[in-house]
Design goal:
The complex is a heterodimer of chains A (112) and B (113). Chain A is an all-beta fold. Chain A contains no helices and 11 strands. In chain B, 0% of the residues lie in helices and 50% in strands. In chain B, the strands form 2 sheets. In chain B, strands 2, 4, 5, 6, 9, 10 and 11 form a 7-stranded mixed sheet that branches. A 4-stranded antiparallel sheet of chain B has the order 1-3-8-7, with no helix packed on it. The N and C termini of chain B lie far apart (36 Å). In chain B, 35% of the residues are buried. Classes of the chains: A mainly beta (112), B mainly beta (113). Chains A and B meet through strand 5, strand 9 and strand 10 of A and strand 4, strand 5, strand 9 and strand 10 of B.
Chain lengths: 112, 113
């Protein structure tokens, strides 16, 4: 069974601070996605990383896929209150059904 | 941007009743999924569907659950006899192919009383 653990589970920081969220597994994934979810809504895709070692930037967000495609990180620079939300990583199974396994989630709160 | 559409947005039912949750995936997508999220918990995989059959299902997806794609556009999840613990947000999702963007619907909040 492929599992994805995210850390930290909860994070409360002041506006302007930097933070990193980690997504770790002992399994290899063919690709990995990061989502943000607001209460009562479906997850919204932020980025997909496919190649080991890949780094993608989305404004103040930097995503990295581990060289072995087992882990990923999300770094936010100068966090803003609008970044508040639940961040989820999801790995695409290598089994051929293209199933996405979701991580345990990181709930971020950015205080003004 | 194309959307996955789910109806209803909220469903309240009595324990033991059957419910059908409906989804319209994006038209050129080939792989379809149902996920659920119990309040405050992680998003859990239920089932994947490809080429008009289930390609994979989780332990949660027991005999009480079934999926159908009856007419080439709708994708439904049926729970035959709902239990209290089935209360959750149910998300439908679809992708065109491997490595492509997974599009989620906005979910159906199911409450079993």
């Amino acid at each position: 069974t492929q599992l994805l653990e995210q850390s930290p589970q909860f994070l409360s920081i002041q506006e302007g601070e930097n933070l990193t969220v980690y997504c770790n597994s002992s399994s290899v994934f063919s690709s990995l996605q990061w989502y943000r979810q607001e209460p009562g809504e479906g997850p919204v895709l932020l980025v997909t990383v496919v190649t080991g070692g890949e780094v993608k930037k989305l404004k103040r967000l930097t995503f990295q896929f581990g060289d072995a495609r087992k882990d990923s990180s999300l770094h936010i620079t100068a966090a803003q209150p609008g970044d508040t939300g639940l961040y989820l990583c999801a790995g695409a199974s290598t089994s051929g059904t293209y199933k996405y396994i979701f991580g345990t989630g990181t709930r971020l709160k950015v205080l003004a | 941007e194309p959307e996955v559409t789910q109806t209803p947005s909220h469903q309240v039912t009595q324990m033991g009743q059957e419910v059908i949750l409906r989804c319209v995936p994006i038209s050129n997508h080939l792989y379809f999924y149902w996920y659920r999220q119990i309040l405050g918990q992680k998003v859990e995989f239920l089932v994947s569907f490809y080429n008009n059959e289930i390609s994979e299902k989780s332990e949660i997806f027991d005999d009480q659950f079934s999926v159908e794609r009856p007419d080439g556009s709708n994708f439904t999840l049926k729970i035959r006899s709902t239990k209290l613990e089935d209360s959750a947000m149910y998300f439908c999702a679809s992708i065109r192919g491997m490595g492509e963007k997974l599009f989620f619907g906005s979910g159906t909040q199911l409450s079993v009383l």
